[in-house]
Amino acid sequence: MSVDFFFDPSPFGAEGQWIKAGFHCHTVNSDGGLSPEATVARYREKDFRCLGITDHWRVTPTEPFSGPDFIGIDATENGGHPDIVAVGVRITAPRKQDLGERIRALAGQGAFTIMAHPTYSGVLPETIMECPELDAMEIVNAYCDEAYSNGLATELWDMVLGQGRRIWGVAGDDAHLNPRKTFFSDAGRAWVEIWAEDFSREAILAALKRGAFYSTQGPRFHAIHIERFTAHITCDPVAQVRWRTFGSVGYVDHASDGMALEASRLPENFIPSKFVRVELVDHDGRRAWSNPFFANVSEVGL
What we know:
Elements: E1 2-7, E2 17-22, H1 36-45, E3 50-51, E4 71-72, E5 75-78, E6 84-87, H2 99-107, E7 112-115, H3 125-129, E8 136-141, H4 142-148, H5 154-162, E9 168-172, E10 191-196, H6 201-210, E11 213-216, E12 221-226, E13 231-238, E14 240-244, E15 250-254, E16 261-265, E17 275-281, E18 287-290, E19 293-300
Parallel strand pairs: 2-3, 3-4, 7-8, 8-9
Antiparallel strand pairs: 1-19, 2-10, 5-6, 6-7, 10-11, 11-18, 12-13, 13-16, 14-15, 14-17, 17-18, 17-19
């Protein structure tokens, strides 16, 4: 017997544009240091074109800041254990509800739902597996990483993906912009780049739902091509392109000494286990993470 596979169709359409977006930050309406207006201004200084303010237990209106070159999407960090970030909501979910009920209440409003800082919250894989309405998990939280050293959740992500759960990965600042806090993250430490058909709230939310985005601390994918039996990417100059699946299979494409990589292809002998995802590592150690490309794997007779 041998193993064969093919990938699901690409979520990236032929037409579209990259949109730099952030969906985890706080203002004076919860525990942040700046007003909503100043928070939006700070993100716009960092070239963000889309933002959701996620104050705790409330929806701070962000859509009124929208204009020809910027889109605000109302959002919230719905507290509990763990917290859920919801992008595209009108109201928060009641505190008395359990995790599944809160996610269903937020998803029922058409929101894109994200489990916030799962490693910080001590989340186990089975908790995520029990939440089918959860769209994504925060794989990088800059605030938790800088303050508590537990802001990365890529290993947890792989464990969940390895069990067959299809879930996207999101990077966020969790910016408080508050110098009174011992540790705080500024805008632009971790974000998502969304491939949207047009520059509108509806197109951005649709792209998030279908996983047409990647997460980054700086390095950028230029294109992510998913073909039936292989995948390849182009990117900023980086030191490594890391191809990852669940288990022992993996491949690291290293740049030659003094050189950089700007493209990489899944090796012909790389047989995925349910999915493949790609990480970029630049020469300063900053990373970017694609969403998983889901694979249909089967055994075939010789």
